[in-house]
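Two quick folds needed for the group meeting slides. Do the first one here.
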Amino acid sequence: MPTRQLWPMYWRTGSGCLLVSTTFEREVITLRTRWREQGDAKAPAMGSDGVLRCGSQTAVLPPIEQRIMKVLLERFGVVVGRDALLKAGWPGQAPERNVLDVHMGRLRKRVEPVDLIIKTVRSRGYMLEARSCSSTLG
């Protein structure tokens, strides 16, 4: 029987984010879908024009960073592995390892004005969070 991956789940409240529990990936996706259906105006979203929007704030992203950000947004608050980000950023290619590091550094600078933060999770990947979540949790 295959094992299911546990992910940390952060639930957003009016005052920030709280670590609720670990949950199965399918449950994370279900909760995130409900969040989008409720129409949270502050939820970060990527437009087809390559503009990242979070509330009234915006950031324009170049194509490679758009593809990386789409994956991070789909799994907001969840660690995304380096392999998944490499496949998204460079489909059908095998770039060198440090290429992702360079683009993640650029992406961090671009998302800072929209109150988002990209954390490095050692030996696992990266996680996108709202800045208020990050300061609330530690």
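Then this one, please, same format:
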Amino acid sequence: MHELKYSNEAVAQAEIIAVSAEITEQERRCAQHLMTLLPQMRRVIGRDHEGLEYPLTMQQYAVLKGLNERSYLISELADKFKVSRPTMSRIVDGLEGRRKNPTEVESGHEDNARRPQLVERVESQADRRLVSVRITSEGTRILNCYHLKAEASAVAVLRHVPAQEMPVLEHAFEVLQQALSVSKI
């Protein structure tokens, strides 16, 4: 008897088709809106970092925001932001000043000046194998500057939303945030 062998790609394609058949038209329209709006908002928020002394990627900004709450192990950060540990190590290296920030490379700001140390690694006194990452005072200062500029950019867009629609939009964001927090993806 001939045994069929499926590649991972074929299995993935079959799963996509199965899931796609279960999607309602309303879910599809909402997903399309999200897929259109998110990159646009990232561009609006991201372009305003140009005036900052140290531009941040959206990933770096998110990690700094997380570290502003508490210290994390690299593995915890990777899990929190749903990236691999090597990817998180590269992000932390950039924030630590060890490697050039991708936005510096793209914009041609690749001078050899020392980049600020926005985070630092701290060895555990109980177990030297454990190294946590914490935000520095300079990291907090840069985070606050970036946050203010990003917030101003978002508000500039939101000012074009009619006032009577703002509560609806705010509720929709809260519902979406809740859905993201319980999503397994």
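Slide caption for protein two: The chain has a mean pLDDT of 82.
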